[in-house]
Amino acid sequence: MTAVSSIHDIRPGNVVPVLRKIVERADLVRYAGASDDYTYLHWDRPRVQEEGFPDVIVHGWLTFAYMCQAVSAWIPRELADMQTYSVRYLRTLHPGIIDCSGRVLDVKQGENGRSIQLELWATDVDGQVATSGQMRLVAPPADPAG
Amino acid sequence: MDLDLNELVERVRRHIGRKGPFCVKTIEKGALLKFCSAVGETNPLYVDEDYARTTVYGGLIAPPTYLSVFSEACAGTLVKDLPFTRFLHTDDVIESYLPIRVGDVITAQGVLADVFAKTGRRGPLLFQAVDITLTNQRDERVAKITVLTAHHQ
Known about the structure:
Chain A is an alpha+beta fold. In chain A, 22% of the residues lie in helices and 38% in strands. Chain A has a 5-stranded antiparallel sheet with strand order 1-3-4-5-2. The longest helix of chain A is centred in the middle third of the chain and has 15 residues, at 60-74. The mean pLDDT of chain A is 94. Chain B is an alpha+beta fold and 153 residues long.
C-alpha cells in the first residue's frame, strides 16, 4: 500500500492516507461476535429506529479499529509502536461509508526514540467528523551498530 | 424536573475508587484471527505467524483495539443505582505498555476513576470514567484503558 519505509520520512503536516471502509450491517454482527459486545444498538434495527436513529449504530470500538488501521497501513508497527491512542465519539455512525484519516502534529527526537504525535478522524458519508482521535507512536532509537 | 444533579454527582462520587470484578481471559489465536477478520485487518503482524516471528515482536500480537474485549465486562457494572437508563459511550483512551500475545493470560479490573456532570442539549449528563488495568501472567502491566460514558434520561 502506501506504507513509508523509514520513520524519518514522517514530518509534521503529513496526512494519513485515507482508509475507506464501506460498512454493512453484517459487519456489525460479525464485530459483535468477535468482540463479545452484544449491545442491541449495534444489531436490533427496529429497536434503534424506535429510538430515533436511522439505522443500527457502528460500534465505537470498530471505528477506532479502522482508525488504527489507517495509521498502521501508513506507518507500520514494525517501525513505530502505538503507545497512547484515544478517540472521542462525537456523533453516531451507521452502515455506509466511513473514511479514516489524520495528520502528523509533531515529531520529536528524544533519548528513548522518536515520538510522533498524530490527530485522527473518521468521517461519515457526508464528510462530517463523527469520531476524533489522538495517537502517539514511538520508534525505538536506532541500533548504534546498525 | 425533580432531579438534583449536584446531589446525584456527590452521591455517585462516593463510589470513586470502587473496583469491579477481575476478568481473566486467555488470548487465543483463533479469537484473534476472528477479531482481525471482523475488523478487516490483514496486517501480517496479526495474522501470519511465520511473518510475525521475523519482526521485532517475535510472534503474533493482538491488534491495537483488541483489548476492547475487556471493556464491556469491566466498565459496565460499577455503579448500578443511577436514575438514568440510557448512556452514550463518549471516549476511549488506551495506554499500551506491552504487546498482547497469543497464550497470554490477561487479568483486567476496572476502577471508578472519576464522576462529573454536564448539561447537554438533551438535559443532564452524568459522566463516569472507568480505568481498566490489564496485567499478564507475569504480573506485568500490559495496558490501561479509560472508558468514558455519559448517562442520561
